[in-house]
Amino acid sequence: MNFLEDGFNNIIGLIITYGLRIALLVIAFLVVAPIGKKVISSSLAKASKRESVSEARINTLEKLVLNVFSYTLIFIFVVMFFGIIGLPLGPLLAGAGVLGLAIGFGAQGLVSDVVTGFFLLLERQIEIGEYVTTAGYNGIVEEVGLRTTKIRSFDGTLNFIPNRDLTGVSNHSRGTMRALVDIGISYDDNIDHAMAVLQKVCDEFKEDERFTEGPDVLGVQGFGSSDVVLRLLGRTENMLQWSAERDIRKRIKEMFDQEGIEIPYPHQVNVTKQTN
User: Fold this and answer.
1) % of the chain exceeding 90 in pLDDT
2) pLDDT tens readout for residues 54-102
3) Can you tell me the distance from the alpha carbon of 83 to that of 252, in angstroms, rounded to the nearest whole number?
């Protein structure tokens, strides 16, 4: 009876000991994780002020470093957990090595993702907050990782793209952008008069803070089936070209209405044949 009681007490003691150690490990993990993330964010923020690094670059690096920190912390947690419960890591690591060798031939895509992601970050091809077109998607970059990149389309869809598919990246957020507006007038209208009216519109927008150059009337762009196409062009601050184009089109319509200049639109003519 004493033997059973001693055994039971030993088991209870082991459970309490291991339970306390595991609880302390979990608490340490829950404490270290947020503190580490906060230290990383504050360190990168201070570094950006000293080195005058762009905000987009800092956000990109912050996401990446936080991911690496989380993976490393999880790995340390697992190793320490095995150490607490007394599970030998040698055989596990050896087995993992054999398993890794077995699946290594099927992990070429993963390796390609990591290598491509590394060069995307090294060459600064894309950064968080930039508008890009790549892999058949276009939108705003939300995260650049070592394996996948997240791009948010303008309809709100979040696209997870493997880095190996990011070929032929078009970055629309580097430097100034072009605001281009084509407007059609009737063949019966005076082209010089229409261009003079358009130039008045352009002169109004030259004071707009969105424009860094222009806008100006380029002239006749082409001839349509029912209209003469005139073109305006200017340079705007990044990502402001669309709002500038919308406002220019609205102002052109108002000015054309005042000047009696017609913007052609499809007409339908019905011919009725009378029979006796």
Assistant:
1) 10
2) 666 666 667 777 777 777 787 777 777 777 666 665 565 555 554 454 4
3) 74
How many CB atoms are closer than 10 A to CB 204? 14
Residue 215 preceded by cis peptide, ω within 30: yes
Q: Kindly list the strands in the beta sheet with 170-171, ordered across the sheet, starting from the edge strand earlier in the chain.
A: 158-162, 148-152, 137-144, 131-134, 170-171
Number of C-beta neighbours around residue 244 at 10 A: 22
Surface-to-core class of residue 91, CB atoms within 10 Å of its CB (0-12 exposed, 13-18 middle, 19+ buried):
exposed
Contact 215, 179 (CB under 8 A): yes
3-class secondary structure for 22-37?
HHHHHHHHHHHHHHHH
CATH class, range 2-104: mainly alpha
The single-letter code of the amino acid at 158 is L
How far is 89 from 83, CA to CA, in rounded Å?
8
Over residues 224-236, the pLDDT tens digits come to 888 899 999 999 8
Domain ranges within the chain, ordered by starting residue: 2-104, 110-171, 177-259
- Positive or negative, the CA dihedral 130, 131, 133, 134 is positive
